[in-house]
Design brief:
The protein is mainly β and 186 residues long. It has one helix at 47-50; strands at 15-21, 24-29, 33-38, 61-64, 69-78, 80-83, 86-95, 99-101, 106-115, 122-126, 131-140, 142-146, 151-163, 167-169, 174-181. Strands 4-6-8-10-12-14 form a 6-stranded parallel sheet, with no helix packed on it. A 6-stranded parallel sheet has the order 5-7-9-11-13-15.
Length: 186
């Protein structure tokens, strides 16, 4: 796995041995003895980020420009969604046509996200070095395209993905997290 730094702690004395168990770190030091540190790991859930957001009341074509941060709660049927910045959607969302996460952009969704219909298919495109983070249900009536360095990340233990088209995944693209793949596309 990848190593992530969440913080730094200053321990008195020279550390001779370190081990971990669950959310605890045990450090043996020469002069101070055994020191026990309780880890407070950051949550990966989007739940706290979704609290107190404004309802979306904009256009049926949602566009977030580079450098912008947009966060909404509610339910809306869009024609299209395109983000070049950071977009958080909490609730139940659907798009009639394409969803595009532009290069190095971020789309986070907690709830349900439905793309197109069985009779009118579209594409979910996650471009180079972009991330689409899903906590909930993702239904795509069409294709999923993950370009170089793209990440499709599922949060929590109960996420579901159901793709009714093809999945095209570049060699450096990643699909990570725990999810149920209804049609075994990934």
């Amino acid at each position: 796995g990848e190593l992530s730094i969440f913080g730094v702690i200053d321990i008195d004395g020279s550390v001779n041995y370190v081990t971990t168990k669950d959310d605890y770190v045990f450090a043996a030091t020469g002069t101070e003895g055994l020191q026990i540190i309780k880890l407070n790991r950051p949550t990966t859930s989007l739940e706290s980020k979704c609290t107190g957001l404004e309802w979306y009341r904009g256009s049926s074509n949602l566009t977030v420009n580079k450098g912008e941060i947009a966060q909404y709660t509610g339910y809306t049927r869009f024609n299209s969604v395109t983000t070049s910045g950071e977009l958080l959607l909490c609730g139940s969302w659907s798009t009639r046509y394409n969803t595009i996460v532009e290069e190095a952009a971020l789309l986070e969704m907690r709830g349900s996200y439905y793309m197109a219909t069985n009779s009118s298919r579209s594409s979910l495109t996650i471009k180079k070095d972009a991330t689409f983070r899903v906590e909930g249900n993702l239904y795509v009536y069409g294709n999923v395209i993950l370009e170089e360095g793209a990440t499709l990340e599922f949060l929590g233990e109960d996420s579901v993905v159901n793709v009714f088209g093809t999945v095209t995944k570049a060699p450096t693209a990643k699909v990570i997290g725990t999810y149920r793949d209804v049609r075994n596309k990934f």
